[in-house]
Amino acid sequence: MVTPIRALIIEDSPDDTDLLLRELRQGGFDPTFRRVETAEAMIAALDDQAWDIVIADYIMPNFNGLAALNLLQEKGIDLPCIIVSGKVGEEAAVEAMRGGAQDYFVKGQMARLIPAIKRELIDARMRRERKRAEEILQQQLAAMESSLDGMATINHSGEFIYLNHAHAEIHGYDTPEELIGKSWQILYEEGEIRRFENEILPILSLNGKWRGEATGIKRNGTPFPQEVSLSMIDGGGIAYIVRDISERKEAEEKLRYMSTHDALTGLYNRAYFDEELARLEKGRQFPISIVMSDVDGLKEVNDKLGHAHGDALLKQAARTLKEVFRAEDVVARIGGDEFAALLPNTDATAVREIMDRLKNSLTHHNESGSAPPLSLSIGAAVAENGEKLIDTWRLADARMYLEKRSKTCRGSLDRPQN
Questions:
Q1: Residues of the chain with CATH 3.40.50.2300
Q2: DSSP run (H or E) holding 74
Q3: Is the model's pTM score more than 0.70?
Q4: H helices of 89-214, where?
Q5: DSSP code of 80?
Q6: Which residues pair with residue 341 across a beta bridge?
Q7: 147-245: what CATH class?
Q8: How far is the C-alpha of 105 from the C-alpha of 112, rounded, in Å?
Q9: What are phi and psi of 75, to 5 degrees?
């Protein structure tokens, strides 16, 4: 198999050049070459194209092999350079090798030339690959240091052997050196450490990588949400990338809140109420009570005093309901002036007590002179195990409207009723 080779030959003798080319061809190479005799010509050749090897005569009238070596070094070009000369002597060989030559041969005695060229081509390729690997590593390290993501390497014992500044800063440390040699567990609370050990690390060992969310702790003990990416590396170590997702979680929570809550009152909205109605119907929290309430006289307030007063009345109704019902109850604004509450694990006796508290709260509010005065029509119903909650809701709603009509019949819409 013939191997192409690009040879830059520093030689003043065309005949000696032909001998070199014959050696190359007999050695299995297909040479592309250029012969030069001066430094200027060598520089032009180096600028014109890339070369695989330089073969230089030791002594020429206007140029020499050592000068060629110096020129390569000055230009920072890593090319194997072999000196070939008619000059015999150990001192000349030593001088050439000290100057950077990879090997030295005497013209007419070049049995080792082809093996030496093959060796030097392999060595040159390995040097290029090693240099490229080092450049890539430096680029990676530079990218890691400039990254906003926390990047670290953990050894097989679970200790940090590398961290970029972002990783340290994300966890509240000033410098990476404060964490070098310490266990990754210093960045997590006990419960999260157990989760890593029992759930995450076994997956990492099996698949070689894992990505998900975790809760880290800062140096001052403050917990924060993070996105974590883990990858196994040689030697049993782990490449460990962390991103602080506090802002993203806050945005998600804000969107979730907005999608489930009424903007005016802060109570749950109709969509969330419907979801909870369906969920509780399939659960085991029976008996379930439903309390319906309607703000009396809201239309008159809006017509006579304006919608700002009507909104204030709705907000006061929401505050009153939140104060009366329990934390586990689902209290929602389901219409313009209608509110509903889902009460899990609440029987008829318990719901009567809650309704009494609601009426007493309304009385206290209105007697205290707090503005605006508030009146609610209320109805309730209880679902025993197996009953459909939609039917219970309708019954509670019907009872609420019965109370509202009774107030209308008494002509009580113009003043607050308790």
A1: 3-137
A2: helix 65-75
A3: no
A4: 90-98, 113-146, 165-170, 190-195, 201-207
A5: -
A6: 291, 331
A7: alpha beta
A8: 8
A9: -85, -5
How far is residue 62's CA from residue 66's CA, in Å, rounded to a whole number? 12
Identify the burial level of 94 via C-beta atoms within 10 angstroms of its C-beta, where 0-12 means exposed, 13-18 middle and 19 or more buried.
Answer: exposed
CA distance 348 to 352: 6
**Start and end residues for every CATH 3.30.70.270 domain found in the chain:** 261-409
Question: CATH assignment of 261-409, given 3.30.565.10, 3.40.50.300, 3.40.50.1240, 3.30.70.270?
Answer: 3.30.70.270
Tens place of pLDDT for every residue, the chain, 418 residues?
788 999 999 888 898 899 889 989 998 999 999 999 999 999 999 998 899 998 888 778 888 788 888 888 888 888 888 887 765 555 555 566 666 666 666 666 677 788 888 888 888 888 888 777 776 666 666 655 666 789 999 999 999 999 999 999 999 999 999 999 999 999 999 999 999 999 999 999 999 999 999 999 999 999 999 999 999 998 889 999 999 999 999 988 998 999 999 999 999 999 999 999 999 999 989 999 999 999 999 999 999 999 999 999 999 999 999 999 999 999 999 999 999 999 999 999 999 999 999 999 999 999 888 777 899 999 999 999 878 999 999 999 999 999 999 887 765 444 444 4
Cβ atoms of 378 and 292 closer than 8 Å:
yes
Instruction: Specify the CATH number of the domain 3-137.
Output: 3.40.50.2300
* Pairing relationship of beta strands 3-10 and 29-36 according to DSSP bridges: parallel
Assign residue 361 a region (left: φ > 0; alpha: ψ between -120 and 50; beta: otherwise). Answer: alpha
- Residue 102: beta bridge partners? none
The residue among 137, 413, 128 whose CA lies nearest residue 297 is: 413
Provide the residue count of the chain: 418
117-125, Cβ contacts within 8 angstroms, sequence gap of 24 or more: 117/5, 117/24, 117/27, 117/29, 117/53, 117/80, 117/82, 118/27, 120/53, 120/80, 120/82, 121/5, 121/52, 121/53, 121/80, 123/80, 124/52, 124/53, 124/78, 124/79, 124/80
Q: Which residues pair with 103 in a beta bridge?
A: 82
Return the structure tokens found at 386: 């197996």
- Name the token pair of 9: 């030959």
Q: Which residues contact 349 (CB under 8 A, 6 or more apart)?
A: none
Sign of CA dihedral 120, 125, 130, 135: positive
